[in-house]
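INTERNAL TRANSFER SHEET
From: sequence group
To: structure group
Subject: PA0069 family radical SAM protein

Please process the attached sequence and return the structure record in the designated field. Keep the field labels unchanged so the import script can parse them.
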Amino acid sequence: MRLLQPLQALKGRGSASFIAHRFARDAREAFDDGWEEAGSEEALAALQTTLEWEQARSALSRHDSPDLPFHFGLNPYRGCEHGCIYCYARPTHSYLGYSPGLDFETRLIAKENLPQLLRTELSRPSHVAAPVMLGSVTDCYQPIEREVGLTRRLIEVLAEARHPFSIVTKGSGVERDLDLLAPLARQGLVAVYVTITTLQPELARRLEPRAAAPHRRLRTVRTLAQAGIPVGVSLAPQIPFLNDDMEQVLAAAAEAGARQAFYTVLRLPWEVAPLFEQWLQLHYPDRAARVMERVRDLHGMDAQDRAQGRSYQSRFGQRMKGTGLWSDMLAQRFALACRRLGLNRERVQLDCSQYHPSLLQAQRSLF
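Return from structure group:
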């Protein structure tokens, strides 16, 4: 196993270590014994992103979670170069035998055959149209999309099938596909949500080191809105004592043209918990303990949970918004700000009636 020794923040990366995944036989910790390996800092600072290809077995992932507002997920990539330290998808790299730490943001996998698989699945007469979330796990407009173009090819298939979908992203690359998205929006087939965690540039640079800057994401919101595309803003995740500018983000997004908004609280499943605590100690050591105590409060951790080192509750109905006093306070702040700004007055309804499997078949139906 690779170790970062001594532990230090890496420019342009969210994680600072190749933390062991939960299936590894041995879990090791780096420590400074005074014999620092020569050149290790330079080697890790220059850590390069690599791309692997895989043949996916299916395109659409179905879920039965009552916490999610969509029925199908569609994800062209595994791992994400944005490197958001809080990303709930980091533990998925464990199934590949990779570290949810630096591997997650440097060893990326592209699903080469996904557009063909999507075409096949949408061509089946048994398929029932329901909104698809493009980028439900990892960002479909992360930097490699500029060269790979998988997301655009998926949109082309969805457009041909007239199948409704939405996009959630931190990437300004979504603007590249306005030529596809704007006509679909006029037909009620697409909506886009731009994640803006904070307006604080330094905090965003540390939290989400390779995602677009906050001001750039606001420009993306404006560009999408001006193109007539229903656009919303995601304030996810809310982290106590860090991104405390919820109202300012909502105001800036509304001014740019957003009409919808939602938020979630910080989630710390599996390896995300030690990675996030590690990040706090590196970047905000003066408030690390305070942040973690409030996160535990948000997820309803009792004395026994805390004694066992638990900081997250994955229960349906609780994991996204938390529970208790601090959760209620966040919900009230959000509702008041949205009401004042005119957000969420009307729900975006995507049209499922236009889809038909024959649209993707060589011989199209006349009916």
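Handover comment: Residues 10 and 341 are 38 Å apart (CA to CA). Residues 46-264 form a domain with the TIM Barrel fold (CATH 3.20.20.70).
Transfer complete.
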